[in-house]
Amino acid sequence: MKALVTGATGFIGSSIVRELLKDGAEVTAMVREKSDTRNIDGLDIKKVYGDIRDAASMASALKGCDVFYQTAALYVRWAPEKLYYDINVEGTKTALNAALRQGVPRVVYTSSIAAVGYSGTEKPADERTEFNWLKTGTHYIRSKYLGEQAALDICKQGLPVVIVNPAWVIGVRDIKSTPSGELMLNVLNRMYPGYRDGGTNFVDVEDVARGHILAAQKGKIGERYILGNTNMSYKDFFKLVGEIAGVAVPEKKIPSQAVIALGYMYQLISGITRKPPLIDSKSARLSCAYLYYDCSKAVKELGMPQTQIRTTVEKAVNWFKENGYVKSGLKT
Fold this sequence. Notes:
The protein has helices at about 10-20, 55-60, 80-100, 140-155, 180-190, 205-220, 235-245, 255-275, 280-285, 295-300, 310-320; strands spanning about 1-5, 25-30, 45-50, 65-70, 105-110, 160-165, 170, 195, 200-205, 225, 230-235, 255. By secondary structure, the protein is α/β, with parallel strands linked by helices. It has a domain at about 1-170 and about 205-230 and about 295-305: Rossmann fold (3-Layer(aba) Sandwich). Strands 3-2-1-4-5-6-10 form a seven-stranded parallel β-sheet, sandwiched between helices. Strands 7-9-11 form a three-stranded mixed β-sheet. Strands 8-12 form a two-stranded parallel sheet. α1 links the parallel β1 and β2. α1 (about 10-20) crosses α6 (about 205-220) and α2 (about 55-60) packs across α3. About 45% of the residues are buried.
């Protein structure tokens, strides 16, 4: 079985590559010319250079492909607005249209829980929850929603695509690190003066990678699957990270209004300095919400593994420490 993985040097993409190799697949990884390839160096794979925004490079990479994993996306806390849409929307259209023209037998598109609606703590959102972040969401959230809609439109044209929506992914080899990795690192490095309201669904990156492969094997065309595990408040998550790492965690609660006000303040400062704000008002507001999800569909229909969240945090903490991401000399 021949598989193409875009975004193969990234956090999720590189884990998919490794899981595919475990299954004996013949893997081609698409990388950009200046990509940091540490996550896939030394692996028995074929590397091709290209970009999901370039139709010619996509067409070339997709030749003879049995399964295409479109994981490439811009997932950073701050970037020029246009770049989110160029990559997450237009890049998705270009890549999936190329797959349609090539007649690829199976495609898995990596969306996000950002593209799923929010319904609060009483009833966690699931795959049927209507998206309701279009006006209040960040550019990343909007672009992932629009990218998913593009994937569904191309599916209607005949592309056999299955959509997966990873939750808040943590684990090993988060080299950049992603916003989810930053959350953990800020706890490990004692960067937070307190904890805030809110919470989300945490999941192991290796489980997410296996979920992609299971989606290719068992997923229903045109449907989406939330790849998640444990709903947890940020207070409890901070406590778990601190307990495992042996570091003190903030015990003071910061009111949501103060967090949101801080976002507005940083936006004003950014307007003067012309530098990205540490946090903006929309991100601050979202960070105080309880974004809980029902992940049972992927578990029941795909058989997605569910590593205990403690085990996942232990692996991530150890990896960050071993690779120099945790400041030395911090007092517990």
